[in-house]
Write a structure and sequence with these properties.
The longest helix has 25 residues, at about 145-170. The strands form two sheets. The protein has a five-stranded antiparallel beta sheet. By secondary structure, it is α+β, with helices and mostly antiparallel strands. β3 and β4 form a beta hairpin. It contains five helices and eight strands. The chain is about 35% helix and about 35% strand. This is SIMPL domain-containing protein. Keywords: Signal. InterPro entries: 26kDa_periplasmic_antigen, SIMPL/DUF541. Pfam families: SIMPL.
């Protein structure tokens, strides 16, 4: 009896492996969605930097200038959560020719400006209060998640439209999606290096000048989709 069961099992397995596996007709296409938006906020990264022969004095000067910068930011009513110290450093620098050590103190602050109408006033104020290095300015959108969702939908629509174009020539239709791969790269806004007037120019210019041209930023999504062919 056991031999008969084993024999029947082997026959079933042989028949199963002998059956031809038919490939599923399918098409793979890619799609891209782009949403262009005018940025409504900016992130400024700025640094106070001083050099000198005595570490304590250099740090003191740096701290005083940064204190003035922070008071300016508070005076402009920026939310406490919108600015933070990014890094602080006090480094010795040895000159081998002069056989002398000097000290370089830096403190970097990151500021989010949610109202771009304050941008020019803030930038000029930062420089006048001791900021001597604007590292970069990045323009962004406060509705990034919403625009990313729109870009993904546009990418899927383009993929479906592409597939329909291809198979329409063959008199076929596309069916359900088998797989969807998100090929989008993480969105990193491109930095815009802002121009700002020197101290002398700011003191001599009584008229307020606009220095900002933010333009547009592009939020992109990319997908590849496998559709069944009917």
């Amino acid at each position: 009896m056991k031999k008969a069961v084993v024999f029947l099992s082997l026959m079933f397995m042989t028949l199963s492996y002998g059956q031809e596996i038919k490939p599923i007709p399918q098409i793979t296409v890619s799609g891209e969605g782009k949403v262009k938006v005018v940025p409504d906020q900016a992130t400024i990264t700025a640094t106070v930097e001083n050099k000198g022969n005595v570490a304590k004095e250099v740090k003191k000067i740096n701290d005083e200038q940064m204190d003035a910068v922070l008071k300016l930011i508070k005076k402009m009513n920026l939310a406490p959560s919108d600015y933070r110290t990014q890094r602080v450093a006090l480094n010795p620098q040895y000159d081998y020719e002069k056989k002398k050590t000097t000290y370089n103190a830096t403190q970097t602050i990151e500021i989010i400006v949610r109202d771009l109408n304050k941008y020019d006033e803030l930038m000029e104020g930062l420089v006048s209060q001791g900021i001597n290095r604007i590292d970069n300015v990045v323009f962004q959108s406060s509705k990034l998640a919403q625009y990313e969702s729109e870009a993904r939908k546009l990418a899927m629509k383009e993929a479906k439209h592409k597939a329909e174009d291809y198979v329409s020539v063959l008199g076929q239709k596309i069916g359900k999606a088998i797989t969807i791969n998100d090929n989008s790269q993480a969105y990193y806004p491109q930095p815009v290096y802002a121009r700002f007037k020197t101290m002398g120019a700011m003191e001599s210019d009584s008229a307020v000048k606009e220095t900002l041209a933010v333009g547009e930023i592009t939020i992109t999504a990319n997908v590849s989709v496998n559709f069944v062919l009917e």
